[in-house]
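Weekly structure sync, notes
Attendees: PL (lead), two postdocs, one rotation student
Agenda item 3: pending single-chain targets
PL asked that the sequence for the first pending target be pasted directly into the notes so everyone works from the same version. It is reproduced below exactly as submitted, 428 residues in total.
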Amino acid sequence: MAKALAKIAVMLAMFAGCGGDGVRPVFPLAGGTSGSSVPTGGVGGQTLTSVTGPNVLDVIVDSGPPGLDLPDLDVLFATATICEPGTSTCQTIDHLVVDTGAVGVRVLESVLTLNLPDAKNAGGQTLAECQPFADGSLAWGPLKTADVKLGGETATGLTVQVIGVKSFAIPASCTGTAQTDVQTLGANGYLGVGILLQDCGAACALPARSLSNPGNYYTCSSASACAVASVPQSQQVSHPVAAFPVDNNGVIIQLPGLSASGAASVPGQLIFGIGTQDNNGLGSATQIPLDAYGYGSTTFPVGGTAYGSIIDSGSNAYFFLDSATTKLPMCTGGLKDFYCPSSTTSLSATMAAMSGGDLRVDFRVANLSRLPASSNALDDVAGPMVGSGSDPSVPAFDWGLPFFFGRAVYIAIEGKSTPAGTGPYVAF
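Predicted structure, written out during the meeting:
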């Protein structure tokens, strides 16, 4: 059986409101009216056409980088070329997780062979980051400056994170389970292409001792002396696509649909820009509005309760509510964090649309223990949303990678202009 990554890969920046004032909204949110027209979003049944151009990067769902103890399940990967700034000294790194719930480029130090310059603050101190994930794990390591090439597009002078402890030991204030190698991370790094311009934003630029500063960033004076710091947004780990000269207002992920048995690998495309080229128009996609924290509204079941929700390619399942609410039984043993209904169960929800009214989304939940062990891509895997019952600030619906199969999903970056308005929003 593929690796059971029940722990959500969404970064806490989406939950902590680091792009705003640090105050988190309370859920459930108000959704669309129950009496509105409800067009269907299907179960990923959209007809997709492959496109070409310098703004296109091939992506794939597969078993992960070579050498993993267990293969990955429902993880979308891309390949990036990392270069020493202003030079042709570059390295191509594959199996970076494509994550719309996170922002920034992060690469394991164990796979990086380049001599990237340190990112330093105005006082000349080297910067590092303790980037928390929603499952209690973290990525620790120094910040570097690099040129990042994705397809035919380049982000120059980008602040990136190198994950590992070779340069600086993890400080005591950076708490959580460290993911510092390919086995614990399940990848060679992350390509965060979410809605935010930086991975933290204004909150991390507040004074280091401010209670509203989440303490993600550090300055390090020696291998064992790192302290929480205030870091301007311009020096934080930033969205690589927003740094492109063109096609910089968002991304589109399109993946083909799957059969009930899934597939060992699934190729797809990551397209840069929304409405900037002939190959990235919105077409008939329906926009889903998001607040400053990246939350939309999902009503489950249709006509039922409205909950906060996210659409996140970095989560390897549908994560929603809990077993007591959904009436879906849990798996046992090594799959205990997933739902395991006695037979594949068809469900429906609606998302509040920007145009008013609701967009219906049909999806399936299968018994993971009965699905083919050879399938690394499945569109019917689900589990409970961690914390949604105990913490009202955590959205109750996470539409993970299974949602993306058979769809073109648009992610518009905050503050960026598109033909359909200014981001952030998602559309499909």
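Discussion points:
- DSSP finds three helices and 25 strands in the chain.
- The first helix runs from residue 13 to 16.
Action: rotation student to compare against the earlier draft before next sync.
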